Amino acid sequence: MEYLFWIPALLVFHSYILYPIILRILTSKEKKKIDLFSLEDNLPSISILMAVHNEESVIAKKIESIFSTNYPVHKIEVIIGSDSSTDRTNDILSEKTILHPQLQYFIFERRGKANTINELLDKSTGEIIISTDANVFFTQTTIFELVKHFKNDQIGLVDSRMRNTGLQSHGISIQESTYINREVLIKNREGRIWGSMMGPFGGCFATRRSCYNKVPSTFFMDDFYICMRVIEQGFKTINSLDADVYEDVSNQSHEEFRRKVRISIGNFQNLFRFKGLLLPPWKGRAFAFISHKAIRWVGPILIIIALLANIALARENNAYLTVLVIFLVSFLLLPLDFFLKRINIHITFVRFVTHFYGMNLALLVGFYKFIKGVKSNVWQPTQRNQ
Fold first, then answer.
1. What's the rounded Cα separation, in Å, for the pair 54 and 384?
2. Do residues 299 and 15 make contact, with C-beta atoms less than 8 angstroms apart?
3. Is the CB of residue 128 less than 8 Å from the CB of residue 207?
4. Over pLDDT 70: what percentage of the chain?
5. What are residue 2's phi and psi, to 5 degrees?
6. How far is CA 350 from CA 1, 249, 329, 341, 342, in A?
């Protein structure tokens, strides 16, 4: 029975605590010469692809952030697919095409992000494909900081560094931002050590055209699928800490939960599709895949197994009884946090605990929906400007 407690507990501990420490140690003395483009070089042409649905509140700002760049504008094409938008998105796109001849847009019937991007890919011509979301804003140097790494022929995909704005104490934005910042460092170190960054932040990443593969029509996590196909082909995936982009981090727990359920469905789709990359476990990319992703995705099941074993063991051992009490107290923080929010009291530590359990509940719900079967990946964007 003790094995049923300790194995799941140690796996969760490894994924969330030990693995990031291992990465930090392995990169602490790393000094590698990196082959990069300069702005004076003959830079590759790029195609920026974006699927949008009812993004009137952000689309104009997004387009202007793209064209406010130090990258040669004649090397850029922007292709946007409006996935059956019913607000002013299409009108704004029409206005922007007059100002920016490099911008094209197409109106589609509702089909989902992956199918929209797949169609836009066929219309693109760039040597480098940049996939991005409407609510993720570029800096003047974002495009160049992504593309400069492709001078190295081994690089297949480069991720950006997500910076968060709009942090508020009364919601979950601080916890979500902390989680994202930690993930950025983990992914950056995976890329530096093994050239196997485990999935980009889907808001903005660049892929070598020859490495880019279309996403299956029912897949949710298109960014992770594209990344793992690059790794599968023997190319490197990395994160560039200099390629800054900005996004309003989610602050409403119900919006973030809905988003994470969708992500969870995609996680399990990709886990089964790329199960071959889990072996051999001592190889860098497999170790990263298992440690960073696979264990976390089955984390809710591991926690439930550990809890049930803990209940059985607590009857015979006071040490396990103490652990069980800690377990149960942490669960009680969920209704406590809900009550405190109602009276406008916000305790950061309590919110971190509830955020962790919320993520794992979303994983469990997503797993259930995955088991039931996925027939469509049509999405509703997270509420903007919360």
1. 10
2. yes
3. yes
4. 93
5. -60, -35
6. 31, 19, 11, 11, 14
* 3-state secondary structure at position 79: strand
Dist. CA 366–CA 368, nearest whole Å = 5
Per-residue model confidence (pLDDT) at position 382: 61
Residue 50 tokens read as: 């974006």
Residue of 248, 198, 188 lying closest to 226 (CA atoms): 198
State pLDDT tens for residues 258-303.
889 999 999 999 999 999 999 999 999 999 999 999 999 999 999 9
Q: Which residue do the tokens 């949008």 mark? A: 52
Q: Report domain extents, the chain.
A: 46-282
Q: What is the spatial distance between Cα 327 and Cα 307, in angstroms, rounded to a whole number?
A: 8
CA distance 99 to 298: 48
Give the per-residue pLDDT at 335. 80
User: What would the mean pLDDT of 94-107 be, rounded to a whole number?
Assistant: 97
pLDDT higher than threshold 70 for residue 228: yes
- Please give the sequence-ordered ranges of beta strands (E in DSSP) within 230-360, or none if there are none: 236-248
Q: What is the strand order of the sheet 204-208 is part of?
A: 103-108, 76-83, 46-52, 128-132, 204-208, 155-165, 236-248, 136-138
How many whole angstroms separate alpha carbon 33 and alpha carbon 35?
Answer: 7
Q: Find where tokens 């990344």 sit.
A: 227
- In 3D space, the residue among 189, 183, 217, 216 whose CA is nearest the CA of residue 202 turns out to be 183
User: 46-282: what CATH class?
Assistant: alpha beta
The C-alpha atoms of residue 378 and residue 381 are separated, in whole angstroms, by 10
Round the CA-based radius of gyration of the chain to a whole number and report it.
Answer: 22
Structure-token match 């836009």, residue found: 120
What the block records as the tokens of 269 is 């789709």
Which of residues 169 and 297 earns the better pLDDT score?
Answer: 297
What pTM, to 2 d.p., does this model score? 0.92
Structure tokens at 136: 């993720």
